[in-house]
Specification:
The structure is a single chain. This protein is of the alpha/beta class and 391 residues long. The chain is built from 15 helices and ten strands.
């Protein structure tokens, strides 16, 4: 599969652009460790140049994010610069200071969508993000609806809200939310200090089918987006990847393949979730836009090597024997990094957990001999033992 991408070329379909790391909240799961702005954030003119470079690189969709992007007063100027050149632009806000004026600015700038973070019903959301946040998000949704823009919600699934997703879905439908993106809490950034809130891996055996059912049903016409670290390779998979109708299954991490990310100081990565200087990590930074053009960084022969230069020999643990290893490439790069375990592979992989717990009824195909052999020698793998305790 990777050879196909190499032949057709790597084109950034989507970009996450952190325009500032400054934030007015202190969420318990913040992967970016946002709060104080970076000391060397790009200037207004530098950001306009970056916007033009994204257009020249044929990037089709850009999401302005942070930190809290609206704390940068010129956010709508960058959005308009992109939108006037036929790029679909969205903004993702925590809604703490969002107002009707912000909604009007987004509409005038030509943004296609405004997204807000809502991580559960009121108690669970506020526990995660801060007291009083929940009603502010609902109020913000209504301001965007009133100006006629599409609006969506992002939800991070953690131990506190995992059993209320149906109720949350129904609330969003009643508010007219157009799209709902779901992702797991991952133990990086601030969440690394709250690992007790991260989902137990076996929860994927009931959560993934539930998310897939949301995708299939599309209640109220709401479009459901399962983030790239949810799945993979079982009966629910086709519904999770419904946007890729020609290949309705996980095709591996998009970072540096069809996705890129820009930090507020001009550092370029394949995905904003991947760690960088704020985390004491440099391996995922491909270059800086103050010294090198975006085109040169994207087209660098040795760039984004963790994906573009992938070889199955790099896989570890179960991933090394998995029938899908060469396509999957070990799952989401960010999630794999957060697990910090080079021996087990992706413990949050649906296929892995289904095999580990003997839930072959959740799979499309009978396991291979190599997969059977792996779990036959796996300590703690008791086929079927957890089947009645997962929910």
């Amino acid at each position: 599969m990777l050879e196909v991408f190499r032949r057709i070329g790597f084109v950034p379909r989507a970009c996450g652009w952190e325009i500032t790391l400054r934030c007015n909240m202190g969420c318990r799961h913040c992967g970016s460790l946002a709060g104080r702005a970076r000391d060397d954030e790009l200037s207004h003119d530098e950001c306009l140049r970056v916007a033009d470079e994204l257009v020249q690189l044929r990037c089709g969709r850009v999401t302005l994010t942070g930190g809290e992007p609206t704390l940068r007063q010129d956010w709508d100027v960058f959005g308009e610069r992109l939108a006037r050149q036929k790029v679909r632009v969205a903004i993702l806000s925590n809604a703490w200071t969002w107002s009707r004026r912000d909604a009007e600015r987004a509409a005038r700038a030509g943004l296609c969508c405004v997204g807000f973070s809502l991580d559960g019903l009121e108690r669970e959301h506020d526990d995660f993000r801060g007291s009083g946040s929940f009603p502010r998000v609902l109020a913000a949704l209504r301001t965007v609806r009133d100006v006629g823009l599409e609006f969506g919600v992002n939800t991070t699934i953690y131990r506190g809200n995992r059993h209320q997703l149906v109720a949350l879905r129904d609330l969003l439908v009643s508010e007219g939310v157009r799209s709902w993106q779901l992702q797991y809490a991952v133990a990086t950034g601030a969440m690394a200090r709250h690992r007790e809130l991260v989902l137990p891996p076996e929860d994927v055996l009931w959560l993934v089918p539930q998310v897939a059912e949301f995708c299939r049903e599309r209640k109220g016409g709401m479009y459901i987006v399962a983030s790239d670290h949810i799945g993979y390779y079982g009966r629910p998979e086709a519904h999770l990847r419904q946007a890729d109708v020609n290949m309705p299954f996980w095709l591996g991490c998009w970072a540096g393949m069809q996705a890129l990310a820009i930090e507020s100081n001009g550092d370029v990565k394949g995905c904003l979730s991947l760690p960088s200087a704020r985390h004491g990590e440099t391996r995922f930074v491909e270059g800086n836009l103050r010294t090198t053009s975006l085109r040169a960084i994207w087209n660098r022969a040795a760039g984004f090597a963790y994906n573009r230069g992938f070889h199955p020999e790099q896989l570890r643990g179960f991933c090394r024997v998995c029938r899908y290893g060469d396509v999957c490439r070990g799952g989401c790069t960010w999630k794999r990094y957060s697990l910090n375990d080079e021996t087990s592979g992706d413990m949050y992989c649906f296929y892995f957990q289904a095999l580990k717990h003997g839930r072959h009824d959740l799979l499309e195909d009978e396991p291979t001999e190599a997969e059977h052999a792996y779990f036959a020698g796996c300590s703690g793998c008791a086929p079927g033992a957890a089947a009645g305790t997962l929910v």
